[in-house]
Amino acid sequence: MKLAAKTDIGYGRMENQDNYRAARLPDDTVWGLICDGMGGANSGKLASQLAAQALEEYFDQSLDDVVPGQETQFLQQAVQQANRRIYEEASRFPEHAGMGTTVAGALVRGGHAWLFHAGDSRVYLFRAGELRQLTRDHSMVQELVENGAITAQQAATHPKKNIITRALGVNPSVEVETGECAVRPGDVLLMCSDGLSNPVSDRTMARILTEVPFYQAADALVAKALERGGQDNITVLLIGVEPVAPAP
Asked: In 3D, which of 106, 115, 93 has the Cα closest to residue 47?
């Protein structure tokens, strides 16, 4: 298993309100996540920092104890803990009221990936030259698409594209969406904030992942988003699935 990541403030923001965390364990279990904060002043940055820190602490303290079959429950508990930390901080300090953050991440081990997300940050699977979105945006525009009110093409330029319907920290609890899929050697899981997925098409992302070596691909994806205007913070996290080495 291998990891690569890149974050950039972009050209349209005064600060970077994205955060990411990732780790590889001795047994080759890998986890990674990204958070895209929302809120006035420094609140969005604080929310994403609190979420990323809380999740990292939970993974560090509890992941070793997770037995097969408990992965989804573990991820749900981790996200709820992060949600509570943000919500309690906002309750204590009125200047941070309403702050929140998206989250999207994956836990990978034993040829399997468990996914979790809330908001419009995304997880994709890149396999054999094709890129497939594994998460569904929790956004107003996505609901309009699913209800047949607008097309996917219209959604791409909709004026309310950035209004999300789920986020960590806004309420005492959050409905986190989970999923799972098999992974195999050569696969890449791509996690990103909307600073990448808004300006860069899936086709272009797939081309970059095909043409650029793994450890340079995150930089290349961010560079493409900057080339397309870079109006938002941009964060990319890649997990590469490698063959399992035989026991000595």
From this structure: 93
Q: Per the domain annotation, does 247 fall within a domain? A: no
The boundaries of the domain holding residue 216 are: 2-240
**Which of these, 123, 115, 77, 84, lies nearest to 100 by C-alpha position?**
84
- Length of the chain as a residue count: 248
CATH no. for residue 15? 3.60.40.10
Cα–Cα distance, 218 to 220 (Å, whole number): 5
What would the pLDDT profile of 147-161 be if each residue is shown by its tens digit? 766 666 666 666 566
- Which tokens is 25 given? 């364990």
Cβ-based neighbour number of residue 53 at 10 Å: 15
Reported as a single tens digit per residue, the pLDDT across 6-26 is: 999 999 888 999 999 999 998
Q: Report yes or no on 246 lying in a domain.
A: no
Amino acid at 64: D
Which structure tokens are listed for 183?
Answer: 């992974």
Whole-number Å distance between alpha carbons of 156 and 4: 28
Q: DSSP letter string over 161-172? A: TT-BS--BTSSS
Residue 182, pLDDT above cutoff 90: yes
Could you tell me the pTM of the whole model?
0.90
The per-residue pLDDT for 215 is 96
The total domain count for the chain is: 1
Crossing angle, helix 202-211 and helix 214-227, to 10 degrees? Answer: 140
Asked whether the predicted pLDDT for residue 188 surpasses 70, the reply is: yes
Evaluate whether residue 212 is within a structural domain: yes
156, 201, 8, 52: CA torsion to nearest 10: 80
